[in-house]
Amino acid sequence: MIAALIRSLGRPLMRLRYRVEAEGLEALPPPDGRGVLFLASHPTLVDPFILVALLHRSWEPTLVAGRDHTVHGPLRWLARAFGVRALPDPASHGAGCREALAGELADLAGRLRAGHRLLLFPGGRLSRQKTEDLSDNSMLEAVLRQAPGTRVVVVRMRGLWGSRFSAASGQRPRLGVNLLKGAGYLLANGLFFMPRRKVRLVFEEVTDLAVAEGRTALNRDLEARLNADPGPRTFVPYLFWQGHGPRVLPEPPRPRVAGNPRTVPAQVRDAVRRHLQGVTGHHEIQDGLTLVGDLGLDTLAHRELELWLERAYGYPCSDPASLQTVGDVMLAATGAAVSLRQGELKAVPHAWFHAPANLPIELPEGGTIPEVFLRQAKRGPGRMAVADQTSGVRTYRDVITAILVLKPVFEQLEGDHVGLMLPATGGAGILYLALLFAGKTPVLVNWTSGSRSLSQGLDLVGVKHVITVSTLLNRLDAQGVDLSAIRERLWLLDVEGKRIPLAAKLSAALRARFDWSALTSVRPPETAAVLFTSGSESQPKAVPLTHGNILANIRDVTQILRFRKDDRMMGCLPPFHAFGLTTTTILPLVLGIPVVYHPNPTEGRMLARIISAYHATLLVGTPTFLAGIARQAEDRHLESLRWVISGAEKCPDALYATLARRWPGVTVLEGYGITECSPVVSVNREEDPRNGTIGKPLPSVEWAIVDLDTGRRVPPGEPGMLLVRGPSIFGGYLNPSAASPFQTFEGKSWYHTGDLVREEDGVLVFAGRLKRFVKLGGEMVSLPAIEEALAQRFMGEEDAEPLLAVEATAEEINPDLVLFTVSGIPREEANAAIRAAGLSPLHHIRDVRRVEQIPTLGTGKTDYQALKALLAEPVA
């Protein structure tokens, strides 16, 4: 009855806006007992209503719809009312979707053989251009092959392209919102005086479709018929005083994925290749191969690919027309794909930008991180604290609420140490604090370190549970990351969180507003975090950092860098990285700086867009990640930045040059740090930044530069081993077998950094890691110096990923220097570049090995352990 009422009212209501002319409908032979399949173009969301209202009296067709008409609120309700046959979608049918779809198509073919009439949009989705693209359609052939003798009627819809209900604007139309706006326009026009949009429907019965010639020929035949004489994009005024005539508008650009697939991180490229190999059966997956023509993907496979991208990388890519090649898929995994559903970033609340300008910000007193955080939160519980594109913006009160919800849950977890495996998100900082308030020591888990190292590290500190989320596991699984060794320890927050009673959440929200006593009385564990060294040179070691270590480091940083109340930070470093834990997770929460996160630091384009949307003023990262952002950012994206803080590895001259040229208002502050030092040791000052240096040591850090041979302090300008001591230095490794990193010098105990530096005018200059020097001909030869000379010659500003690395063979006496390169640099050219840089012949390359990519760690550093393993393998 509802469907009949809608049909009865549909035609008169549509006449208030549309003037529909049907050509060829009356000339169609009447129903004769054979099945009839109406195949229509699909420019707007109102197409089904116009066609059903026009056809229901004589033909009574059953509408067959894809997900455009069955997943959104108003459309879902209307689809049920009209008895729409919704085709199965992988989002709801999962792995069994192809089987379910085959069954549905067989049923539709049976209905046609029984004489039923069906109305179907063969494109499967809303048109993104004025013409239909059926290249990946396999549904039509499957139905017609099973229902021979079916009458086929092609319906060309003209005049609707450019309507508010079309995708001509480049955005997916919102049916409910536009219907409400349309009702308002009708009232403003006195119901009957609204300008009409002329709609022309051309019906043509076809008897010679190329069904027997296969899917490709059939789709091309039908495309040609549906796309005959396509109309332009037109705008028809909504108010009678604006005129009644249509106005032709320019066509939207064809969707495309911008960027160079070679810039996509190697692990993402490999994951896409493996996935497409499994889906298509093709072994050679090259960037330029087309998904439809070369790999044979159909509409369903496209949809499954979109879902895989969204599940693995978090990006909806709802426009298949933008995914044409393998390279497009690789770029889509970094957020570069055109997507009507993705559209713009989530709106940022106005309160995010409300803060007094240019006023200094102060760190509260306190002996533990929870204590300092609570004092900061009490200064303004309604202030913005953290944000990301998944959970939105959260205030300090929201953070307190979440901690009160999670604290009793975490208290029940077995053991004093609990693992935390999350990327950079607003939730990571909240969970870290919740563990401390629950009396647990957070152990930051680095999923890039390998399954064996993960398991050994967790066993070392007695971790029984590792808190993580399904979205991260899906992404890591898609990238081929092996977590099998710790799978049984994983504690999924998105699963376990559903078991928390609503009453507990309401109680926490109430207490967050009126009573924080459950938090103020907490005595957190002495160790504030356990991290593992990066393992770029050796096996990871467990590093315990106390509250005193981390807070001393933060207090030093806030003394020398003038943070302001109107600062906003961009965070992308994973919290398992000491640089990320201290500077982008803990520091903003205890200092009161709003921080917005994005979980993947390699997605430069998305990070640049987020910086722009949230008006971030501070960007913290490693040079590899920073270079990716600068390379993919438009000039407008980084205009709000005042500082770029670089650490973890040497910042290359090319990155300095790019930032200075494109964003002259940005100050680059390069620093130096070590996990064991919480981690910052030195950093450039805002008032006197010196490119190519690591700045001055922090106020509380004592330091000495010692000659390797004599054990005495070196004179200024001479390189030597850096020794440090102070309240931010840790107390020793948890690994029983690890050698002590401390040595006695001048009667005091110092931490031996393993790094060579020199002092120039009170500023430190990094000279390289001792482990990255080799002794040749009685001289110490720096491998980083060779890499720098080669990078200046063979790498450009556009290269975000490392394209070369130098390592030495294992011989203790006169080892060979080996160049690993992605681009296949000839040895003679490499040595010419080394000579041109002023390095001696001892620095010359002896061998060149070409590799698919330079291995990197999750922090963006080159993985020299992996290169050493490659050196041990025989040369093919």
UniProtKB/TrEMBL annotation:
It comes from the Bacteria. This is Phospholipid/glycerol acyltransferase domain-containing protein. Pfam families: Acyltransferase (PF01553), AMP-binding (PF00501). The chain crosses the membrane at residues 418-438, 572-597, 609-630. The lineage of its organism: Bacteria, Pseudomonadati, Acidobacteriota, Holophagae, Holophagales. InterPro entries: ACP-like_sf, AMP-bd_C_sf, AMP-binding_CS, AMP-dep_synth/lig_dom, ANL_N_sf, ATP-dep_AMP-bd_enzyme, Plipid/glycerol_acylTrfase. Residues 36-160 form the Phospholipid/glycerol acyltransferase domain. Keywords: Membrane, Transmembrane, Transmembrane helix.
